[in-house]
């Protein structure tokens, strides 16, 4: 099957646009490769003292580490008890060490990285640290791998900012092979749609707090990733279409023999693809322009999280690759929507997996020429083998072809009969700047609006107005001052139940913000990530109550319909809420806010090239 012409064209322009930065990145990785494996005594890079410190407490692995003849894996773990998705990771290092030893190598926990649960911080001050926790995770990953004792790395993390942060950090060590190790989704509890219904009733005062807590607790009921198709599960899809997982590992539940067998297989495979062997697969070669294009196609085909319109840009940047929202929009316009997983439908990832899951979807997209099959997958083959699904034949881990047709066409479909001819993610452009919108969760009737603006400087102000009963009629809800340099670009998902209530009452509404929404946000049209952000002179700072605003997701446009002379004459509103600069640790992230790029540049505070005369004002 030949490649779709748009996939070919977008890939070619990304390669051309990235030629110098990608070339420089690969040169740096080749230089790092020349140093590795740094751990053998013959290498001057690590002195005997360095080495002894590195294996002093390694017990039975000491001879292997001292001798430096077998591969050593650096484990970077995002374990903590706060994320249900990461809690199972606590015991994985023991399983990995034993598997590495059995395979003739060794494994050490190189370091841990922080992991924030956006579900716990949603709507609270902590959410203003969420986006920069990604960059913090990247920094912590680099600290862990900078011990330079490793021939490969296993990165254990699943959720929203954690996989992007781990990958951004590991790409600075792109000379190492890297395999991601997830724990998988929790089993299905109360459906996400039933949970959302109780939330809307609570928002209207028609459900008690006890009823709400009971619904939430039955939805989020155990170990594993939350079962909606938000950023965490979008991460799992990305790891498959980028070839960074063992095939089909994304949605196998934790605490099962198959999950443990996949973790062992990841360990064994990491040792097979080091520079010590004859199938060297460094991360720098796996994450190339084709893998990044695959990621954007996978996102569009499955209705993935809008957060990846930001994270993928930062990940690509870390690999020397430049992408933008025009690339994402062009690919999404030609990619059929194959999955209906909440918030894009009522099913959850367990249903999706049972229907044929990513194996079926990847096979369909390769067959349609929408995914590059020829990428250097960590499993040793290419994307065609990635589309296989793992199973246990007694105790033996094997892979088999996914079902030839979807086992549940209400959840998963082939390219011949998609849910929509186009994928879920769009770029908007107009006199308000540039923005992102996800239409896969928005009914066609709600994908455009022309209505007066109601302008707010915080999501709490919106909720206060709702409680005061002043959110009447059709309106565009503008929440500004929520960009990366303002307050860390929080998700405004706390608005979802309230906006859903208003829309269900028959009011035509939309959200317009320089902030983010959760991957779990859904049915209300939301033009988000507006760039430039309000505090950087962005147009949202000039908007006033009553201005007519038009958002048209299908046309890809959004504009303020205000007289040009009046618009130019307006003083931009000062949207900084300085109270949000301190408290809950926010005072520690001022450097990241000050250095953050725009949303379309990945809202990343890393890769800052300070000029000699640059003055950084210390608060
Ligand atoms: O997918 C993402 O981008 C997210 O950040 C999901 C958040 O964790 C939500 O906060 C969890 O969903 P809710 O229980 O509806 O709050
Ligand atoms: S999916 Fe989101 S809410 Fe669920 S554990 Fe992960 S970060 Fe927390």
UniProtKB/TrEMBL annotation:
InterPro entries for the chain: 6-phosphgluc_deHydtase (IPR004786), Dihydro-acid_dehy_C (IPR042096), DiOHA_6PGluconate_deHydtase_CS (IPR020558), ILV_EDD_C (IPR056740), ILV_EDD_N (IPR000581), IlvD/EDD_N (IPR037237)
Catalytic reaction list: 6-phospho-D-gluconate = 2-dehydro-3-deoxy-6-phospho-D-gluconate + H2O
Keywords: 4Fe-4S, Carbohydrate metabolism, Gluconate utilization, Iron, Iron-sulfur, Lyase, Metal-binding
Pfam families: ILV_EDD_C, ILVD_EDD_N
Keyword Hydrolase: no
The keyword Transcription appears for this protein: no
Pathway annotation from the record: Carbohydrate metabolism; Entner-Doudoroff pathway
Molecular function as annotated in GO: phosphogluconate dehydratase activity
Cofactor requirement: [4Fe-4S] cluster
Binding site for [4Fe-4S] cluster: 159, 226
E.C. no: 4.2.1.12
Enzyme class: lyase
Manner of cofactor binding, per the entry note: Binds 1 [4Fe-4S] cluster.
Dihydroxy-acid/6-phosphogluconate dehydratase C-terminal domain span: 411-603
Dihydroxy-acid/6-phosphogluconate dehydratase N-terminal domain: residues covered: 72-385
Known role: Catalyzes the dehydration of 6-phospho-D-gluconate to 2-dehydro-3-deoxy-6-phospho-D-gluconate.
Stored HAMAP family: Edd
Family, per entry: Belongs to the IlvD/Edd family.
Name of protein: Phosphogluconate dehydratase
Species of provenance: Lysobacter zhanggongensis
Gene (UniProt): edd
